[in-house]
Design a protein that fits this description.
The structure holds two protein chains of two kinds. Chain A is mostly beta strands. Helices cover 0% and strands 50% of the residues of chain A. Chain A has no helices and eleven strands. In chain A, strands 2, 4, 5, 6, 9, 10 and 11 form a seven-stranded mixed beta sheet that branches. Chain A is globular, with a radius of gyration of 13 Å. Chain B has strands spanning 4-7, 10-13, 19-25, 33-38, 45-49, 53-54, 62-67, 70-75, 85-90, 97-98, 102-106. In chain B, 36% of the residues are buried. In chain B, strand 7 and strand 8 (70-75) form a beta hairpin. Chain B is globular. The chains are: A mainly beta, B mainly beta. Chains A and B meet through strand 5 and strand 10 of A and strand 5 and strand 10 of B.
């Protein structure tokens, strides 16, 4: 069974940092592009970032570019999101999601993890 | 960025009803569109991609259509487990964007 389990969320002050992890199992991790998507409290879905199978290609939403870094450890089947200089508006549930395609990105998100809550507040 | 709109924002329906949700994009995205279902407290679930391809394991009561800028998700014979919020998403260009969602609740 394909499974994605996020961790690392919590309460952080504005300007602080947090590192999210997403542990993957049940599939060949390095074959898939991976994504982070977030959802503010009571709000809709916002795509955050994407990384290819070997970690050599990344892409970010403008709102996080320069502050967030996506990476992966294929030996540990784990996806990361390093979040620096956090702002109030970064408060959200952060989901990791597997790209539907193998090797080539299709940019459809399936499946998703259960999410981890990040709260940025003083 | 490609802007996404959905209508209606919410709809009340009964078990057995047919529900149609519309998604409109601010520019032509061919068929680079997906639909997701999210129930409260849960992660979204992929239902349909490339506008009309049913994801494996998803009930055939769900169907999608459209191309260009106008797309439709239809749920036939609505079941209790279908009461949820539905989002469309474009994968035509960065940043990938989602519609604001359509909540389907019980009449």
């Amino acid at each position: 069974e394909v499974q994605l389990v996020e961790s690392g969320g919590g309460l952080v002050q504005p300007g602080g940092s947090l590192r999210l992890s997403c542990a993957a199992s049940g599939f060949t991790f390095n074959r898939h592009w991976m994504h982070w998507v977030r959802q503010g409290p009571g709000k809709g879905l916002v795509w955050v970032s994407r990384i290819n199978g070997d970690g050599s290609s990344t892409k970010y939403a403008d709102s996080v570019n320069g502050r967030f870094t996506i990476s992966r450890d294929n030996a540990q089947n784990t996806l990361f999101l390093q979040m620096n200089n956090l702002r109030d508006e970064d408060t959200a549930i952060y989901f990791c999601a597997r790209d539907l395609g193998q090797w080539l990105a299709q940019n459809w998100f399936n499946p998703w993890g259960q999410g981890t809550l990040v709260t940025v507040s003083s | 960025d490609i802007q996404m709109t959905q209508s209606p924002s919410s709809v009340s329906a009964s078990v057995g009803d047919r529900v149609t949700i519309t998604c409109r994009t601010s520019q032509d995205i061919n068929t680079w569109l997906a639909w997701y279902q999210q129930t409260p407290g849960k992660a979204p679930k992929l239902l349909i991609y490339t506008a009309s391809t049913l994801q494996s394991g998803v009930s055939s009561r769900f169907s999608g259509s459209g191309s260009g800028t106008d797309f439709t998700l239809t749920i036939s014979n609505l079941q209790p487990e279908d009461f949820a919020t539905y989002y469309c998403q474009q994968a035509h260009s960065f940043p990938f964007t989602f519609g604001p969602g359509t909540k389907v609740d019980i009449k």
